[in-house]
């Protein structure tokens, strides 16, 4: 996760700054509007979402409802605009967990965690069952 890398499948925004704790980790690129994934390998997921402020698309409550806890690190400027200053969250995940969030959550993979888009998981399951 280095500066200049494209963040989303449906926008041209690129990484401006990342928290030090996750700088060298891979992330799961999705739409900026919606994240809907299924965990396929256990590990740790980190999540970035805008820090709560007027007009920011923060999903802090949804992340906490899903079992994520806030990591005590300074917020960073993910991409331009005050509303895009983000906070970092963390969760240990297991295979089969489905995570759904509205705009704006970016998932970062650690400790072997892998997730796939829910549509991809459904397609893979359907394909296996049809053979």
Q: How would you describe this structure to a colleague?
A:
Helix content is 15%, strand content 34%. The strands form two sheets. Strands 1, 3, 4, 5, 6 and 8 form a six-stranded antiparallel beta sheet that branches. The chain has a three-stranded antiparallel beta sheet with strand order 7-2-9. Strand 5 and strand 6 form a beta hairpin. It is globular. It has 131 residues and is α+β, with helices and mostly antiparallel strands.
List the helices and strands and how they pair.
Layout: E1 27-28, E2 34-41, E3 43-50, H1 60-65, E4 69-70, E5 76-77, E6 85-93, E7 98-102, E8 106-110, E9 114-117, H2 118-130
Antiparallel strand pairs: 1-8, 2-7, 2-9, 3-6, 3-8, 4-6, 5-6
What keyword list fits this structure?
131 residues, 2 helices, single chain, alpha+beta, six-stranded antiparallel beta sheet, 9 strands, disordered C terminus
